[in-house]
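Our preliminary data section would be incomplete without showing what the modeling component actually yields. Below, a chain of 486 amino acids is followed by its predicted structure, encoded as tokens that our downstream tools consume directly.
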Amino acid sequence: MDVGPAPAELKAPSSRKRRRVEDVKPARAPSKTSTRSKASDTPAPSTRAAKRLRPTVSTSRALSAQPATRVFALWKQDGHYYSGTIHSLQAGTRYLIKFDDETNDQVDITMLRRCELLVGDAVILAHGNLRGTVVDVSQMESGSIRVEVDDGSDVESSDFEISDIRIASRAIQTHWKDRTLTADSIVTIIRPKPLHATPSPSGMSLMSATSVKQKPFAKTGFVVTLTVRNKHPEKMKESVMLAIKHNGGTVIDDWSSIFPMEGIHSQSNKRWVASLENFKFKPKPEFEGLERVFLLADDYNQKPKFLVALALGIPCLSHEWMRDDYLNHPISPDWQPCLLPAGFSEILSARVSQLVDLDWGNCKEHLSDIMSNTVASKLFSGKTILCLGADFVPLPPRGGRKGGSDATQDASRVVPWIMICMNASRVEAVTEVKFASKDLPAYDYVVVKEYSERPKDLQDDVTLVGVSWVKDCLISGRLLPMPASR
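Predicted structure:
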């Protein structure tokens, strides 16, 4: 998949907010040239200094002596929060926000947070899209904070203007609950006639505020899987792994290295039971520093590694993201153009796109609290599943099995785990019907390897499905019509 740069006359505007060069501190001389994020192809306009918004007083409407409320507000075009000032109340609970880059938008009060950064807050730097952590807020009153960037091997700290950063929506939802606002606590600038929101931000010129650099794959883990159609799997896998390591990434042997497949065996290992609470991010020591993960493949497939990633909403990307000439050309931080299809749905007779959060990985909560991913389809949410067949029962730890694998003989044993990843509340795997803990009608679904392998004397009120139907639903991102009875 060769993706070349678009001709200049065809460049499309970016949805990412860009900041204008603002009042710069003496220690941070502006660059003479405009620097643009690779995520945008929008030509940069003039680099004239942008005006800071300051509280003004209307002769017809005097305001309180209090300064206008400073906030971080949601910019819906890219799903991140940016700094700005509350200008005026609009309809209902929506406020007109004047962002620091001179764009404006109407934002509901539920999508506003006080502009109060705390030590430990995760932020994203506008220049370079680097992820960092706030380490000093003593100069926040003057609009500056200190941010630490850790690429896994080196740690650098630099001062940044608050307008130089953005906050991931997931981080806001998780860690900023103590910085919400009420209508009574908001002070607006003035109350003019309602203004229309800017339809999209104009291209803003950026300047390099620091020499901080971060390897593109710092604190990033990759699970690699290749299709059986690949003629040179070992050569390709070696090339991909070298590119990952060269760019600061980590190769993960299998998902079980960060998501242990934990359950309880009973009935002489003829029954295995796991619940949604058992599934957590519990990495092995060598992977504890990871903050985001991806799956790399040469094409879509139905191997366990690929299916687990689909179920969890982890982006499955083409190995072509890792260019063969990575030593001479930097790898783009933008992974979205490299998304593979989820697969081919036999029932829909179509290749289907993945259902993923396009801002995946911009905060560590995407990984550490992965089961709270609101984008993943979670088709079996709240359901109880029985996997019926000896091949489904995971081997006990003392069996010497080192987690999951892409080997054919192990694929069926990962099926119960995939059900948990699809948000089933409880999954049970048994070798025979007699070892099930409940009567078959009590389960929402009874899964067999092949739908034709129906147990004898099966009750009419049992919802029986085959593994192929489960896979097709996962690929399609929806519950498909039930297989016809035979």
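Helices lie at 169-175, 233-246, 304-312, 365-368, 408-411, 415-421, 467-476. The two ends are 43 Å apart (CA to CA). Preliminary results of this kind motivate Aim 1 of the renewal.
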